[in-house]
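BUG: 3D viewer hangs when loading the predicted structure for this chain

Environment: internal workstation, default settings.
Expected: structure renders.
Actual: progress bar stalls at 90%.

Input used:
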Amino acid sequence: MPPLNTHRFTQLRSGVFESEDIDVMINESGDFAFLFPQPVMDYSQYKPRSQRLGLQTYKSNNDVINRRLQKIGKYLAGVENYLEIGASDGGFVAMARNLYPQMHCACIEPDQSTKQQRDALDWLHQFDDFGAAISSGRRFNAIGFFHVFEHIEDPASFLEQCTALLAPGGRIIVEVPSLTDPLLGLYELPAYQKFYFQKQHPYVYSGASLAKVLEHNGLEIQHLIPYQRYGIENHLTWLSKGKPGGSEDFREQFAHIDDGYRAALEASATTDTVIAVAGVCP
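Structure tokens produced before the viewer hung:
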């Protein structure tokens, strides 16, 4: 994938979550990885891993949507038209519109399992795909996609369609899981590495490699924001038990230091997630 295909790669590991025949290749700087051979995904039958593993309640209790809005809400201030790609049940776009009631909101989300929740948002305009959105003639001051880009097999084509939907002066806001995840690098936890890489994510970025891909495709980085989605109780659970899901005991015991722990990781850019804010190059 240009421009990262010019890097030298070595094998990081053999096997990913639930797929032992796929290798993980990583570049020399350790800021970009890809799966080989690239898996073919049938998203018509796709269920998020958190759903398959029964982690939905734990994930929702972690308040990732509200924390995301705290990170990027200011970039939506004054936005007249907002488009979210991969809006799922509409949880984030609903929270954003509650903050900015004047904002006209739309989404592209083919997932039928969450359509009922989106349909309940009578102010949300839903497009079936990029083609429908582009042919509508609507253009957007901001386009957000969160934990979508790592699923995209052809990033250049995807970004081209995104920029075609941007109004002059508009920006995209993209959030991806990051190779700077502290459980991968800081704690070097083998059990987590085995869990982390999965066939649904053909490419795995860091802030640095994400910026290179966006810039190569005509976008100018305005801000890179390290964002730690999971807190100290999650990390202690992984370190002590080697599995996801957190622990209520750890959550209660360490609640008073959790915000500080996340802030320290974010200050050092050692985070499980990164958010890029970018506009079209002049």
